[in-house]
Each structure stands twice: as structure tokens, then as C-alpha cells.
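User: What would this chain look like folded?
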Amino acid sequence: MRKVLVLEDEENIRSFVVINLKRAGYETIEAATGEEALARIKEDPGIRVALLDIMLPGIDGFEVCRRIRAMDSKIGVIMLTARTQEMDKVTGLMTGADDYVTKPFSPAELTARVDALFRRTGGGEEEAASPDEISQPPFLLNTRNRTLEKNGQRVKLTQVEYGIVKLFMENPGKALSREEILDAVWGKDYFGELKIVDVNIRRLRIKIEDNPTKPTYVNTVWGYGYKWGS
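Assistant: Here's the prediction, encoded as C-alpha cells.
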């Protein structure tokens, strides 16, 4: 079931998004307020991707994203924003969003972003050849359940964060460029900015590092990208 939640308070924009998602084969669930969106998600566990407008009456898109993450980290989240300030993009990603689309956007761009994230949240065939577990103490990655443990304790990851960790743990000690990470995790047809890799790495470090300001697991390769381990 390809279900997508569309949270947008402006009816004409919401209708535009819904029509194009339906054309692309998605079932849509609509919401005009943050409160309504959260209620729809609780009612329907089949929702796999949520498109969230930031500027809303009542609770805004950032807060909806935080609450979605508190409820179910497996839902893919794309923020819709009319504002172009970099701070909005970073704030949205740091609250747990997987991607963002700046208005105005084309139908092709929107559906491509949803398609890419849907594949990411769905797992699918790319997991078939993986071992069930990848162990690199203190971490244990279970590719069947798509979960990560550190010292036996579950680390709550979004599906994009899981994809990044899996890529790193399959390539320990190898320097991976931002472009390689973007292609592997978001898909080769993704045409967003490289900045999304950096913000997701920052978010991931907060979750897995003993001291996120002095990372020991996800290390920066200056001017290039990142690598797992020293």
C-alpha cells in the first residue's frame, strides 16, 4: 500500500499535490492542520511517507515532525516550505525530516522525492543480498529488522539514518564522498542538495557518538566526505 499523508493548510496547494501523487500511483490521506495530521497517522499505520507544510495554524510542521518521530521513526518525512532560508531547511532536517522541497516545486520533482523516500522506507530488494547482521562493536546492525544497537541498547533511527549507517558499516575505514552517500541512500535519481547529507550526518552523530562534537565512529574526511572508524 503506497500511502502518503499530505499536510497543507492551503487547499489549492494540497489539491495540486494530491492530484499529482494520485497520478503517480499513491493513495493520499489529507490533513489541513498539524493536529489533524497526527490523528490520521495514529488511525492509519499504513502511512509510509508524510509531506508536511511548515507554516500552519496551531502546531507547525516542525512540531508535527518531532511528534511523528516520537511515535514511529519509520515514516519518511518531507518538509514543504515556501521560505528559502537555509535555517528552515536545517531546522526541518534536525527535527527528524528526511528531505525538504521548496515551493514552488514541479510535480516531477515532488513525485521523484516521494519515490526515492518511499523506496528507502520500504527496504525491498536491495536488502536481500545483505547478511542478517553486521557487527562492529559496540554496534550491531540487524538488516532484517532494519535496527541498530549500541552496547545492546536500541538506537532509534529514521530509515534514512539507517541507510547511512548500513552503508558505513558495509564499508568500514573507506572514505565515502558526499555524492556516493547521496546516490546510495537517496537514490541515483535524487536531485536535491549535498547539504542534506551533512545535516543527516550531524543528526546521526547526536544519536550514536559518545561525544558528537568529537566523533569517533563517523569521521569527517575534509573536503571530500565521511568514513566509518579511524
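The two ends are 42 Å apart (CA to CA). If you want, I can go into more detail on any region.
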